[in-house]
Amino acid sequence: MAMESGKASYYFETYGCQMNFAESAALKLTLDERGWNAAQDGEAAGLVIINTCSVRETAERRVFGRLAHYAALKKKLRGRQNPLFVLVCGCMASRLGAKLAENGADFIMETQGGAVFTRILAEIEARLAGAEWQAPQMERDVPDAPLSFAPSHHEAGSFRAFVPIMRGCDNFCSYCIVPYVRGREVCREPAEIFGEVRMLAGRGVREVTLLGQNVNSYSKDGLDFPGLLEELARVTADTPVRRVHFLSSHPKDLSLRTVRVMAGNPVFCRHIHLCVQHGSNRILAAMNRRYTREHFLELCAALRAAMPGITLSTDILVGFPGETEQDFREILSLMEEARFLYAYMYHYNPREGTAAFSLPDRVEPSVKAERLTRVIELQRRHTAELLTSRIGDCAEVLVEGVSRKNGGEMVCRTERDEMVVAEGGAHLTGAFATVRLESLSGNTLRGCFTSEE
Ligand code: SF4
């Protein structure tokens, strides 16, 4: 059924980074405001929105698989009163518009422009109301304004929220497609950001995550990233917001002033995701990362000196063209020094359109796979050691919800981004509590609540 209670229904499939999830939430808000209903799955929807990621080839292949699924579903549903429409947005929409249309996308929206989205919705609504339609019809569009941040991405009742502060990236790391599909950096107006955080605080939100491809290079109206953090500390003081995260951070742009502002304000979580990518200066230069391993390790030391106990996480890319065994070992030695709590680890895959695509000396797939395994094994050991060292501590946690594995347990998170499970009731969801950490199971600490808000 495409129509429920006389209203059109939608279903989202969102892939990729937190930015995509935040943008999907913003689109959802527009749908809700226009009276659309959320469908339980794509089969029950009148409009499926696939928000895509181009960072890895596997993510793109998956989307083509989903388009094939919906093309088959459309055939099956042919003749029903309310047709199924598929809208594709996100990075793939910019990169592969024509191919997406050939594979069954009815609408392609290159970036999330409010005016374009509402026009597409108006067309679909007209069709659902009985207007003529020559389906399947592809409409490719770009926003009429270069950028529009949605005024709110917040779901009613939710105690966590994402707040995009910028979009795009100017860095052109040689392996990365993002600057080509997301465009150059555009920063959001400070007043808009503060207004949104005030609104979220007014709704009882406890945790805010600032989002951007490279948040540390935020700069707008004379305000830089540490300035933005300082002001946010003032805006959130004496409000329900007790935690502010931000991601992602680029080591070349993370300033010592930012470290000082974080250290001086407990609202900033004692965790930072700082993408190192590699441990060899030669490979870092080939990646166009514009920092050295020494600089990265100095930053880690500065963060730990300013905020004892802070945890670090990262991204690691193995098998970049030209990577020798010696280069690779420098990743392992950097990991031993930096001691990440967790890492997103992946091996290099050439992306057409990036500078690294034409680089010689590609690493053999079997070598890449073997190196990735070694990195993962080392990271597992570090994760286990860091988490084990926490056993016996008491930690403040934000209770995120009921465990999917055991309805009598609650999943929580510390300000160091450690996951904790403790016995408790659903009424705790969204509350801060103190947990005594007692044991480790996989990558999850187990504990018991000692006090609640
Ligand atoms: S900083 Fe580099 S890796 Fe990150 S989005 Fe920008 S170009 Fe891509």
The CATH architecture of the largest domain can be named as: Alpha-Beta Horseshoe
Strand fraction: 15-25%
**Shape summary:** globular
Catalogue the ligands: iron/sulfur cluster
Q: Structural class given helices, strands, pairing?
A: alpha/beta
User: What radius of gyration results from the CA coordinates?
Assistant: 23 Å
CATH fold descriptor of the largest domain: pyruvate-formate lyase- activating enzyme
The count of β-strands is 22
Q: Give the helix level as a range of percent.
A: 25-40%
CATH classification class of the largest domain: Alpha Beta
- The CA-CA distance between the termini, in Å, is 44 Å
Kindly give the count of domains: 3
Please summarize the sheet with the most strands.
7 strands, mixed
Residue-averaged pLDDT, rounded? 89
So, the CATH homologous superfamily of the largest domain? tm_1862 like domain
Provide the low-confidence segments as ranges.
Answer: 1-6, 135-148
Total count of helical runs of at least 4 residues: 13
